[in-house]
Amino acid sequence: MTTYTTLTYEVRDAKAYLTLNRPERLNAIDDTMPGEIRAAVEQANADDDVRVIVVAGAGRAFCAGYDLKQFAEGDVGERWRSDSQHWDPVRDYREMRRNTDDFFTLWRSLKPTIAKVHGYAVAGGSDIALCCDLIVLADNARIGYPPARVWGCPTTAMWVYRVGAERAKRMLLTGDTIDGTTAASWGLGESVPAAELDEATERLADRIAGVPTNQLVMQKLMINQAYDNMGLQGTQLLATLFDGIARHTPEGHWFKDLAEREGFHAAVEWRDSGRRIPDGG
Predict the structure, then answer these.
(1) Which of 21, 136, 179, 254 has the most crowded Cβ, counting Cβ within 10 A?
(2) Burial class (CB in 10 A: 0-12, 13-18, 19+), 124
(3) Which residues, in sequence order, are CB contacts of 80 under 8 Å at separation 6+?
(4) How far is the CA of 143 from the CAs of 65, 152, 173, 224, 266, in angstroms?
(5) CA 260, CA 32: separation in Å to the nearest integer?
(6) In whole angstroms, what is the distance from residue 108 CA to residue 101 CA?
């Protein structure tokens, strides 16, 4: 059995439950979590007793994105820099593409995946949720990609494939979040009152678990192939490169400098407030 440190894994009634488990950090993504998500998905796919995978978050949120406080405040050394002390875009791409591919095992999983979203699914947390085949959200949950305003680009590039071009632009040109009710009205999963989230997710998972695995795999592969035909792989390559560039533009350096001077939370408050972010830092 695999031992996990950032998530829990259990199987009940043909359902594998993958629960992100860093509740003290709102399940923020550290360097270990992406690989453990991949390992848990692979474990579920190898288990003939599992027909569907449910992804959730412990505590008050699904996932609040990457755990960037220390990195943004300059406390983690020179991550992703070459020996010459300059940003290495290839190394950056390699590291972030590995995380993207780890998250995307949820989409590539032969067995269906369901995200059960409460609290926040923002930034990298929204990447994880959107990589799942189906999403069930609490009405009052918040989902979005605030780093689109500065210092980020969603590496999985799934917004356009899940909600279409116009609504993807609405999300990524503003960095806004939307609640579960709005997400469902846009065709992004289904939304239920928070008190009914567990029951609704179980009902959907049980419905899927009643279908033979062979049927589930064939239907999912057929649908996913349509997305591949639309250029999903190429879009993700571009998005992952842009994510690294976004952290090293003049505006990106302005954001990191602000975080180092005043703290990451102060920088995020400016970013999300709607105040103008200076061009060129």
Answers:
(1) 136
(2) buried
(3) 87, 88, 91, 92, 95, 244
(4) 11, 16, 15, 23, 21
(5) 24
(6) 9
Calculated CA dihedral for residues 200, 168, 185, 273, nearest 10 degrees: 90
d(CA 90, CA 14): 41
pTM > 0.70: yes
Amino acid at 19: T
18 token code pair:
């993958």
DSSP summary character for residue 119: S
Q: What angle do CA 244, 28, 1 make, to 5 degrees?
A: 110
DSSP state of 112: -
User: Under a CB-based contact definition with an 8 Å cutoff, are residues 160 and 170 in contact?
Assistant: no
